[in-house]
Write a structure and sequence with these properties.
463 residues; alpha+beta; Triger factor/SurA peptide-binding fold; Chitinase A, domain 3; four-stranded antiparallel beta sheet; PPIase_PpiC
């Protein structure tokens, strides 16, 4: 039967989708199963059309929240809240299928690579990660890929629901005025930190070696070898290598310009010369055009950088630092024009707080690499060039800038407008999500295991 779902499920969630998974700091957030010897008894606890919630999903998130609580009291209904969040996510996935809300394979592969690179960095090496989980990196990525696809789809579905919601300054002020004075939060020390990142350059020897290897592969294909077989053997693109280099169909503008430009010159079955992009060096085989989309295979090689290759990057940063300190250029302009970190360069180089979208970061939540660097810095100071590894595992150099240091204080509109605006926006988005939930709650089939019946996930909402 079709079961109506509790309206409170929607309104209880401040930010419903993808709080898990997009700031990878744990196995559960990464979507990686537990290490050997720590497997949980599993089973389906909820069905939402053809989407399911597993007992292990609830238990892993519960364990993560307990660990995060650090000994503080755990709400008795925590598992129910987790289950409600998961049910809403599954409802979004179910509706996404009906509404044809999809994400591309390239988006999924990029996020898998980003998250795995981050986790490898945290563990120390790919070898240590493989040893901990008793699986090769390729298998871990394959395990992660379906979950990442679901998470990206949920994110896109929520964006279709709440993407146009905005708040005015008046609404922010009204929201703040409703908060009881004795309930206003107390913020710890917060800082604004900027960075300019310049990647290490690939040395010419490694670059030429990659080009030579791809030219040799190209000669093998022209002599009759199978492109897909060679892609499985040689390509360093983990997302497509196992598929014989196949990337699927893309519209114009969805792939990097160099790759697309080379592809558009080819006819079905033809192969490109070696093409360079930000990802490395490609050999492309064009497959077919279908409407306004096209499909290709590729073989990717990524020349390695070395510590000696960071010299040019460091020299550039030394020059930029000197210009900033002499007021020849602002840090914001230097970051916008030179930094390779797209997440911060458009923001004047300032790192963003993922919780509220602002630029002030809690000092005690900073990455250790930044915390121990700025701990003794004065406001306005800029570090000399420092070694850095990007989220996707590339060697780079960066300089850090301490823009501000705000002492502990109780929330107020003047100092904390960005946070208060974010909270007001979340409340308004919740209302939009709630309306969507009410509209769509009766369009799916839901079934819940008896062990979670007390959670009242399926209660009819009172209107």
């Amino acid at each position: 039967m079709l079961v109506k779902v509790n309206r409170a499920v929607a309104s209880a969630l401040l930010t419903v989708v993808l709080l898990l998974g997009f700031a990878p700091a744990s196995q559960a957030q990464l979507g990686i199963s537990r290490p050997k010897g720590q497997q949980l008894l599993d089973g389906i606890v909820v069905k939402v059309d053809n989407q399911i919630v597993l007992r292990s999903e609830v238990e892993l998130i519960y364990a993560q929240e307990v660990a995060r609580a650090e000994g503080k009291a755990i709400p008795p209904d925590l598992k129910c809240k987790i289950l409600q969040s998961l049910v809403l996510n599954k409802l979004m996935l179910a509706r996404a299928e009906v509404d044809s809300v999809t994400v591309t394979d390239q988006q999924v592969n990029n996020e898998v690579d980003r998250r795995m690179a981050y986790f490898v960095q945290q563990i120390g090496s790919e070898k240590r990660l493989e040893e901990q989980y008793n699986k090769p990196i390729k298998t871990l990525k394959d395990d992660l890929r379906p979950q990442i696809k679901d998470q990206l789809t949920q994110q896109k579905m929520q964006e279709t629901i709440t993407g146009k919601v905005a708040v005015t300054p008046r609404e922010v002020s009204q929201y703040f005025s409703k908060v009881p004075k004795d309930s206003l939060p107390y913020f710890s020390t917060e800082v604004e930190v900027g960075q300019i990142v310049i990647p290490a350059q690939v040395n010419e020897k490694a670059k030429q070696a990659a080009i030579a290897k791809l030219n040799d592969i190209r000669a093998q294909v022209l002599a009759g070898a199978d492109f897909a077989t060679l892609a499985k053997q040689y390509s360093e693109d983990p997302g497509s290598a196992k598929e014989g280099g196949y990337l699927g169909f893309f519209k114009r503008g969805e792939l990097v310009p160099e790759y697309e430009a080379a592809s558009m010159k080819l006819e079905p079955g033809q192969m490109s010369p070696v093409v360079q992009s930000q990802f490395g060096f490609h050999l492309i085989q064009f497959i077919e055009r279908k409407g306004n989309t096209y499909s290709t295979r590729h073989i990717l090689l990524k020349p390695e950088t070395g510590t000696a290759d960071a010299g040019a990057s460091a020299a550039t940063l030394v020059k930029l630092r000197r210009q900033i300190l002499s007021d020849s250029i602002s840090f914001a302009k230097a970051a916008k024009e030179n930094s390779s970190d797209k997440n911060s360069s458009g923001n004047g180089g300032l790192l963003q707080n993922r919780q509220d979208g602002g630029t002030r970061l809690p000092l005690d939540k900073l990455d250790p690499g930044i915390f121990f660097t700025i701990d003794t810095m004065k406001v306005g100071h800029i570090t000399p060039p420092l070694p850095y590894r990007t989220d996707d595992g590339k060697d780079a150099m960066r300089i850090l800038y301490l823009k501000s240091n705000t002492p502990p204080h109780q929330a107020n509109l003047q100092d904390d407008y960005q946070k208060i605006a974010a909270a007001a926006l979340n409340e308004k988005k919740n209302k939009a999500l709630d309306e969507w939930f009410l509209k769509n709650r009766g369009t799916v089939y839901l079934e819940i295991a008896p062990e979670y019946a007390q959670c009242k996930v399926l209660d009819v909402a009172d209107r």
